[in-house]
Amino acid sequence: MSSEFDHAAVLAKCARGEHDALHQLYVHEGAKLLGVVLRIVKDRGMAEDIVHDACLNIWQRAGSFDPDKGSARAWIYSVARHLALNAIRYRNREITFDSNDPTELDQDEHFQHADVADDAFDWQTGQQMDSCLKQLEPERRNCVLHAYVDGLSHAEIAAHTGAPLGTVKAWIKRSLLRLRECMA
């Protein structure tokens, strides 16, 4: 690969109905999309279904992408994240009652309420993490995000940012320490 993947061009091809563009997008971003969605829903089967639905949604809505409002890659990931968050909301609304006694909760609902509590904790943790990330210098924050959200290696981050490899490693290490302190 001599050039960087052009997400906007691929979305434009999707909008024109070029099936190969969706395949290119899936090959290039599918595993990373799955990783992001899996972190949200914590269920591999559900995550795979959501990524599939996200790809269909991206295909169908590619013409609505507006480059003036943000990057194509961010738009693609926002489609997947929104579907994942909606799936969590829907899953948490499902309530199953014991058919013999509607006043008693069956075991599945008990576990669903436990999931709601866990998700609320995850949401609060996520908000706290956002706040802590905002305290980092932008280039250091971006390095952490490239490593833990995009799944890039230190070398890939160095190439992407133009910073020396040792500097990137130091930034990430120090940033993680600051994040750990902030989250405590």
TrEMBL record:
Sorted alphabetically, which Gene3D superfamilies does this protein's record hold? Answer: 1.10.1740.10, Winged helix-like DNA-binding domain superfamily/Winged helix DNA-binding domain (1.10.10.10)
- Keywords recorded for this protein, A-Z: Sigma factor, Transcription, Transcription regulation
**Residues in domain RNA polymerase sigma-70 region?**
25-93
Q: Where does this protein have coiled-coil stretches?
A: none
Respond yes or no to whether keyword Zinc is given for this record.
no
> Carries keyword Transit peptide?
no
Q: Name one Pfam family in it.
A: Sigma70_r2
Give start and end of each RNA polymerase sigma factor 70 region 4 type domain: 127-179
Cross-referenced InterPro entries = RNA_pol_sigma-70-like (IPR039425), RNA_pol_sigma-70_dom (IPR014284), RNA_pol_sigma70_r2 (IPR007627), RNA_pol_sigma70_r4_t2 (IPR013249), RNA_pol_sigma_r2 (IPR013325), RNA_pol_sigma_r3/r4-like (IPR013324), WH-like_DNA-bd_sf (IPR036388)
Q: Give the family this protein belongs to, as stated in its UniProt record.
A: Belongs to the sigma-70 factor family. ECF subfamily.
Identification of the protein by name: Sigma-70 family RNA polymerase sigma factor
Organism encoding this protein: Vreelandella neptunia
